[in-house]
Amino acid sequence: MVDGRLSLNQKTTDRIGVAEAVSVCADAGLGWIGLWRDPVATFGLRESADAVMASGLRVSSLCRGGFFPADNEEQFEANIADNLEALQEAVTLGTDVVVLVCGGIAGGDLDRSRRQVVEGLARIVPRASELGVRLAIEPLHPVFAADRSVVVTMAQALDIAEEHPPEVVGVVVDTFHLWWDPEIWAQIRRAGSRIFSYQVCDYLDPLPDILLGRGMMGDGVIEFRRFTEAVVAAGYEGPIEVEIFNDEIWGRDASEVVAEMIERFDRLVI
Amino acid sequence: MVDGRLSLNQKTTDRIGVAEAVSVCADAGLGWIGLWRDPVATFGLRESADAVMASGLRVSSLCRGGFFPADNEEQFEANIADNLEALQEAVTLGTDVVVLVCGGIAGGDLDRSRRQVVEGLARIVPRASELGVRLAIEPLHPVFAADRSVVVTMAQALDIAEEHPPEVVGVVVDTFHLWWDPEIWAQIRRAGSRIFSYQVCDYLDPLPDILLGRGMMGDGVIEFRRFTEAVVAAGYEGPIEVEIFNDEIWGRDASEVVAEMIERFDRLVI
């Protein structure tokens, strides 16, 4: 019996499409799948929603909005428009969580890029609120501060989130990105009901690749049970996504990967 | 005229020995060199001290002590002994700063490893104090949290340092390791007179390699002048080391690298 909280984030099986990922999840007895916008667009938004619906799965989150920083006004507006689209897609897919990877440094200006994240978020909050979609800011590991997310700690993400209502703006707790932070346990307590998503994957040592060297739980240094206990103690009761960027895992049979994921999840995460 | 604060950390010219590095620095008109224990041991401790003395250079720091975490008591004691040796070497080399790279996770236990850093440091403080050697904790970029330093932020380093007298235990401000931290400016102010060393090198985007992909100032995303102003405003008046781990730079002629370093330093750092 698969734990009812376990969700496959489809990034873990990056080389197969939405239809196949949905069917692998359903066959394995999972209750949830986390989707990414690119493969959803490839398969078709409506088609993706229908496939999920037909399978009985629910969508734990949609990745990703964000990428707010821009080095000109036109690009910034285009980024906002893209985020608004992501909200609508989430509604169609039947999920109320959009993960925000906030974006890296634009135009060589870290401070302005950080301000643009704050401004960009504020621009999409009203629409998210109308649609009943929750915005989950994902602090990324500082190794991605230049190119993917100028938001790099839970404290920083919460500082941004707390300017908005707790039912609309929250955070993602992703073990890979946060395990190193001496403040993480205090910040998870602080996050409380603002934890909108909990994602797990391991940090390999040595790290084989900056982007594609993440590990299956148990293959690296992260103490997952401690993370799970912390987010549960903070009040989180939602799905737990396994999201692994790893070239070797992507090369394997998806059903096999999901079977291994279930075993590791039961043994190490919950 | 080369700025009197500029120091070549010999890691920037990793493929030449102490004697050659000293002579390259002296020829270029530098006032300082930062030494590493391995090449010093290779050339000889006494010989290294003599070469520096004869050149008229001063040694800005000795890298590195630290690496406290161990998965057994015997190894922990060996680590302490090694640190005590480093202090003595610093005295022989005529520098009063030993840089502490505190060490990664030992035995799979992050919390214990962090406690061992605190304990190990406390063990060597009395001897450092007797010898007049200052211990500079270097918070490393979180990408090295597993394998090189469980101390990853300036706040964490200062929490540890502040248990000891400000004339004995302080920190290294290294731009590569710290630029991403939203709290860095506040923490540099907090550090004040505990800044014992200031090291610069750039963060390339994309990062070509986790360990050996650091950049010459100007080739990446870091705003050096802002860092320099912050450490100077905090009261730091010591040497500024250029320390670059970069395989491509290591392959070049050392005199050429030092000439470029001087030009970039004048234009971008001070």
3D structure, described in words:
Two copies of one chain form a homodimer. Chain A has 270 residues and is an alpha/beta fold. The first copy, chain A, is built from eleven helices and ten strands. Chain A has helices spanning 18-28, 37-43, 45-55, 73-93, 110-131, 154-161, 175-178, 184-191, 224-233, 247-250, 254-269; strands at 6-9, 32-36, 58-66, 97-101, 134-137, 169-174, 195-200, 202-203, 214-215, 240-242. In chain A, the strands form two sheets. An eight-stranded parallel beta barrel of chain A has the order 1-2-3-4-5-6-7-10, surrounded by seven helices. In chain A, strands 8-9 form a two-stranded antiparallel sheet. The relative contact order of chain A is 0.14. The model of chain A has no long low-confidence stretch (mean pLDDT 98). Chain A binds chain B through residues 104-105, 108, 110, 114, 141-143, 145-147, 152-153, 155-156, 179-183, 203, 205-207, 210, 220-221, 223, and chain B through 104-105, 108, 110, 114, 141-143, 145-147, 152-153, 155-156, 179-183, 203, 205-207, 210, 220-221, 223.
